[in-house]
Amino acid sequence: MTLSIDPEATTGPSADRERTANRLLTASARRSYDPELDLDWTAEEIDGGWHWVPERLSLYGTPMWDGLTQEQKVTLSQQEAVSVASAGIFFEVVTLQLLARYVAGRQATERHAQYALTELADECRHITMFARSVEWGGNTVHRPGPLTRTLSRGLAHTAWGPSMLGAILTAEDIMDMFNRENMVDERVQPMVRQVSRIHVVEEARHLQWAKEEVARQVAGMSRPALELHRAIVANATVIVARNLVNGAAYRSVGLTPWKARRVARHNPHYQATLRWSASRAVAYLREVGLIGGPSELLWKRAGLI
Ligand SMILES: [Fe+2]
Ligand SMILES: [Fe+2]
Q1: At what angle do helices 161-184 and 70-104 cross, to 10 degrees?
Q2: Residue 202 Cα, ligand 2 centroid: separation in angstroms?
Q3: What spacing in Å lies between the alpha carbon of 108 and ligand 1's midpoint?
Q4: How far is the CA of 36 from the centre of ligand 1 (A)?
Q5: What is the Å distance from ligand 2's center to 108 Cα?
Q6: Is 242 exposed, middle or buried (0-12, 13-18, 19+ CB in 10 A)?
Q7: From the CA of 14, how far away is ligand 2's center (Å)?
Q8: Residues paired with 188 in a beta bridge
Q9: What is the DSSP code string of 101-165?
């Protein structure tokens, strides 16, 4: 694929924007995956294999965890993986809506807008891939609760500019941290590792595109506007973090969801996992100024900082 733009023609933010998009479009054309072709959905599960790095599970290290049989622990790993895949499906559909609005406000001839369209296409395939991975294990998608659905609908219709891209990239970055561990851990089911690997490759481009653009958009922003965007990103991230484990996962091994949630919330291992999962996004958002001010409290209360 040849793209006709002279990367040296201009300088400044719009030239940078086009140059990055141009490079990412070429990379996408060279290396993208199709879940229908690149994964073998007829592959068997490995008997007793984990579906998630066990040390990253919400109850790991607690007496409640120790009280589960090995079989129940593996089942819980599968159900927490289903929860994350379900959250992935739900929030990637929100991303599709946000990106569609983003493209609607731009010139389709811009490479930057064309990359947003490429990302939209990637996310469509990711949603299918996550749905197939849930089905592959013989499970059904965990549906988020009514509060998450309402807040996410509001976000999908209203977020703009740096908070739109900032919310997307933060969710992507958190997911990416887990994916990168899963894909290299030999205790984890090969199917989960392959799904994670595909997601990591394609999300690396999304993250780069969004991070560079957010930095450009935030530069020189007024204080009140910055505080508003900070608050939107903080709220969106809290919603994502609260949906990583669905109560259905606990129910699948005979635990009472509200009791297990309380144990997870007070579990120092899981507290560390949550902070670790957000650590790269937090460092980036701090650097560009999208964390700070009164809304930082939301990050702290959600255990992400
Ligand atoms: Fe994705
Ligand atoms: Fe993405």
Answers
A1: 150
A2: 7
A3: 22
A4: 16
A5: 20
A6: middle
A7: 22
A8: 50
A9: HHHHTS-TTSHHHHHHHHHHHHHHHHHHHHHHHHHHTT--PPPPPHHHHHHHHHHHHH--HHHHH
Measured from the alpha carbon of residue 206, the closest ligand is 2
The CA 175 to ligand 1 mean position distance, Å, reads: 9
- Ligand sitting nearest the alpha carbon of 126: 1
Nearest to 273 by CA among 182, 152, 165: 182
Q: Name the amino acid, one letter, at 227.
A: E
DSSP code at position 211: H
Dist. CA 131–CA 144, nearest whole Å: 15
In the chain, the domains with their CATH numbers are 62-301 (1.10.620.20)
Helix (H) or strand (E) holding 52: none
Alpha-carbon distance of 267 to 17, in angstroms, equals 43
pLDDT (0 to 100) of residue 9? 52
pLDDT tens for residues 189-238? 999 999 999 999 999 999 999 999 999 999 989 999 999 999 999 999 99
Question: Are 86 and 52 contacting, i.e. CB atoms less than 8 angstroms apart?
Answer: no
**Which two tokens mark 305?**
């900082």
Return the ligand number nearest the Cα of 169.
Answer: 2
pTM of the entire structure? 0.94
Under-50 pLDDT residues of the chain: 1-8
Distance 109 CA to ligand 1 centre (A): 24
Structure tokens at 245: 């484990």
Paired with 50 in beta bridges are 188
